[in-house]
Amino acid sequence: MPNISTSGWAGHAGRRFGASAVEVFTYADGELPADLKCQVLSFLRVQWPEGFVEGNRLRNWIHRPEQHPTHFALAENRVLISYAGVLWKELEHAGALYKVYGLSGVLTYPAFGRRGYGSQVVAAATDYIRASDADVGLFTCSPHLKNFYAANGWIAMDNAVLLAGPRSASYPNEELVMMAFFSEKGKRARSAFASMPIFFDDDLW
Ligand SMILES: CC(C)(COP(=O)(O)OP(=O)(O)OC[C@H]1O[C@@H](n2cnc3c(N)ncnc32)[C@H](O)[C@@H]1OP(=O)(O)O)[C@@H](O)C(=O)NCCC(=O)NCCS
């Protein structure tokens, strides 16, 4: 089986990201190799079982296609070490429309934890968002990961109010809101995002 760690691998559909010893590969949705996809899904099923109940009991997708996923995977000899997904949607906030990107499903298999691999996939995913047409970045995390994401430029919006779910039936998010401001339009909106309730108008990613 080809090796995707240090020397790349013939015929892969991904793109190498970064220059360190174990590298991050990025894949358009549908191009993530099946064995890597299976390892991502297996981790998600254990870590976030609530995403795999009822209608999603036999879920075989990492992110919904309408969230425009791009996958960032760090693996050695096809063994997945770390992963991050990048998603985007259009979001209306305070009367304006923004292109919002976010991170989702960030993970490191425990045997590889606290060695900088998670930061490496977050850095690659964040660089990708920075180079995109994003106005702002937004996702949620538990408060203990604030510094982990802040190290890659994400800002903890301690007082932001984020409402999850469809606008008509929204409910408050209880995690820490992390944001980044990319375009001029996005930068100008920072105080509006900090001070006015953000209706995500979908399940949080
Ligand atoms: C959160 C998670 C992705 C972090 O992955 P990781 O590969 O351990 O991340 P890193 O090694 O890059 O950084 C983790 C910490 O280890 C520290 N660290 C990095 N390299 C280190 C090293 N060589 N030695 C010791 N510590 C190190 C980092 O400074 C960081 O510290 P911090 O907690 O103060 O920010 C991982 O713990 C995980 O999968 N958690 C479960 C799923 C989850 O909660 N995902 C996040 C969803 S928002």
Automatic annotation (TrEMBL):
It holds the Pfam family Acetyltransf_1. SUPFAM superfamilies: Acyl-CoA N-acyltransferases (Nat) (SSF55729). Signal peptide: none annotated. One of its GO terms (molecular function) is acyltransferase activity, transferring groups other than amino-acyl groups. This is Membrane protein. Residues 46-149 form the N-acetyltransferase domain.
